[in-house]
Write a structure and sequence with these properties.
Blueprint (H helix, E strand, L loop, with lengths): L7 E8 L7 H10 L3 E8 L3 H7 L9 H8 L4 E9 L1 H9 L4 H7 L4 H5 L8 E3 L5 H8 L11 H26 L4 H11 L17
Antiparallel strand pairs: 1-3, 1-4, 2-3
Helix pairs in contact: 2-3, 8-9
């Protein structure tokens, strides 16, 4: 029987200005729910940046108040990862309207920490917007499809297993007192994807 394939997915979460004081509690809920916080940053968006982020809502009646609210104080943006991350995160945060959330999803983040349909504590990307929103908040992030199935096996066979085998062979020969630490250091030093830096290159400012 083939082992089950786990599809790792990323999504963007934002702790909104009204819920910043509850950041620690919300992070605990996130971690207990099986998410890994891959990246995190604190920011205070300008109205212009907020308008760009929520461009899909431009022209709607609530757009001006949304921009004013989201640029009124600091936020914390996080990239979350787990299987079916988008779906699970949206389920965890509950409906946008906090009053409805308290009725239908009383244990959701919005039910616990939100105030109304706009000051609803957190933002969650949908499937169509997750990659764009991650790039917006983390422009240095590389968002790529994570290999699964045969592609993952090929990747492991070509790039991971040979290096790991060499490291384990060296570990057996060396027999260090702290094998885990030794292997970790060896893998860092012998990482085939480690960038090469040419020390002979000099940068001159104009």
């Amino acid at each position: 029987m083939e082992p089950p394939q786990i599809y790792v997915e990323r999504t963007l979460a934002i702790i909104k200005p009204d819920a910043i004081e509850s950041l620690t509690d919300i992070e605990e809920i996130i971690k207990r729910s099986g998410f890994t916080i891959v990246q995190k940053r604190r920011a205070h968006l300008t109205p212009e940046q907020t308008s760009d982020f929520y461009a899909e809502h431009y022209g709607k009646m609530f757009f001006p108040s949304l921009v004013a609210y989201m640029s009124s104080g600091p936020i914390v943006a996080m990239v979350l990862a787990r299987e079916n991350a988008v779906e699970y995160w949206r389920e965890l945060i509950g409906p946008p309207n906090c009053f409805r959330a308290r009725e239908t999803h009383p244990d959701s983040i919005r039910a616990l920490y939100g105030t109304d349909d706009q000051r609803n504590a957190v933002h969650g990307s949908d499937h169509d917007g997750a990659e764009r929103e991650i790039r917006f908040m983390f422009p240095e992030s590389i968002v790529e499809p994570i290999p699964t199935g045969q592609a993952a096996k090929d990747y492991l066979a070509k790039l991971v297993n040979p290096t790991l085998l060499k490291g384990l062979t060296s570990l057996c020969k060396q027999k260090p007192e702290e094998p885990i630490t030794w292997l970790a250091d060896w893998l860092i030093a012998n990482n085939p994807n480690k960038p090469c830096v040419n020390d002979d290159i000099h940068v001159t400012e104009a």
